[in-house]
Amino acid sequence: MRLSAMMLLEFFVFGAWFATLGLVLATNGAADIIGQAYLLSAVAAIISPLFMGAIGDRYLPPRVLLSLLHVAGAIVLFAIPNLIASGATGTTLAMIFVHMLFFQPTLGLVNSLALAELGVQQRIFPYVRVFGPLGWVVAGLTVGALGFSASTNVFYVAAAGAVALAIYALTLPASPPPAKGARFSLGDVIGIDALSLFRDRKFAVLMGCTLFTSISLAFYNAFASPYLGALGFENVAGVLALGQLSEVLFIVTIPFVLARISMKAAMLFGMAMWGVRFLLFILAADGSNTFAVVGVALHGICNDYFIVIAAMFIAKIAPARLAAQAQSWLILMISGFGAAIGSALSGQLFAAFVTRNVAEGASAWVPMWWVPVGLAVATTVIWIALFPSKPAGEKPKEDYNV
């Protein structure tokens, strides 16, 4: 229950502002920096998680590091609304970047903290992690109910959540840094020890496919909210919250599913569904908003059956001394490289097809959505071809067959 509350607060902070950032910027005269804002968030995810992971592994108790990062993040969030109102887009981008430098490491930190505390009970991690999307749902419904979907007030809501989590983190069970006393080197800053994990073909293929899938996730994060606005939805935050609600519903099925099929098959299903959701977005452009709602609702399958299971897989193969760094690699691929490529690419496509063809309405978005559909097809093929299968007759040594 303690870890579940931590997950809820963590994703409340994230979901309160990140889900509708594109809509907030577009509504407040800063549509031209949407792509840059998400790109800088991705760059922050590349720079900070491994460094902070190394610190968390060696010097600071996880709960203390989590608290300090959220205090710093809250201070920055409080400053952003005034910057947007004043038209200081450059400074706004800088502050979003600084905030994400503090926040991005916490995504891997809460995973490693929870998995470490669960110990031999890691099979129940999905039941803890389910409170993450639930926190996002609560944030979305709160923002939507307050009428803040397109308002800079979302940053104040997120900042309040960050302060609450910073205080709560200090009440979590005390645990020492897992690699306390280990020598710190420049290699730790870039997570060079964790690079040894890439010798495992499963881990290497997983990271590669995570990268490609995360490009599609970046398309969704940056432009799902403006697209829903173009389709005529008013409570965009509330609609997007359906995606996190579906995460709540599907994440609890993971232990039952993994007891019957392999992690490889489950993650394959999750990757393939990314293509389906963007096909539904394309169909919605013809005037049927129901397709868009279903596409949003598929978020649970897309994330739960890939990202959550990936975190569980990494926890099985990473040694304790590299626990935080290994989870940071997952965040690095998702919120770092994948998000950076996806944000830059989607921003260019938005400018090329949507901005130049505003009069066409939702149909102007169709060429842009075909790109993540193609990525999903390519990733599925790579996964099937390269991720090794368990030899026939071999019994799994762990709780779940990977």
Q: What does this 3D model show about the protein?
A:
This protein has 402 residues and is mainly α. The chain is 74% helix and 0% strand. The chain is built from 17 helices and no strands. 56% of the residues are buried.
Which whole number gives the mean pLDDT? 84
Proportion in β-strands: under 5%
Q: Write down the secondary-structure element order.
A: HHHHHHHHHHHHHHHHH
Helix proportion range: over 70%
Which stretches are low in confidence, meaning pLDDT under 50 for 5 or more residues running?
391-400
Total strand count, please?
A: 0
Span of the ends, CA to CA:
27 Å
Based on helices, strands and strand pairing, what is the structural class?
Answer: mainly alpha
Morphology: globular
Count of DSSP-assigned helices = 17
| Biggest sheet overview | none
Radius of gyration (Å)? 20 Å
Outline the fold blueprint:
Layout (H helix, E strand, L loop, with lengths): L1 H17 L2 H7 L6 H25 L3 H24 L3 H30 L6 H5 L1 H15 L8 H16 L16 H4 L11 H31 L4 H16 L2 H5 L4 H22 L4 H9 L1 H19 L5 H32 L11 H21 L16
Give a summary of the structure in a few sentences.
With 402 residues, this protein is mainly α. Helix content is 74%, strand content 0%.
Attribute tags:
402 residues; mainly alpha; 17 helices; globular; disordered C terminus
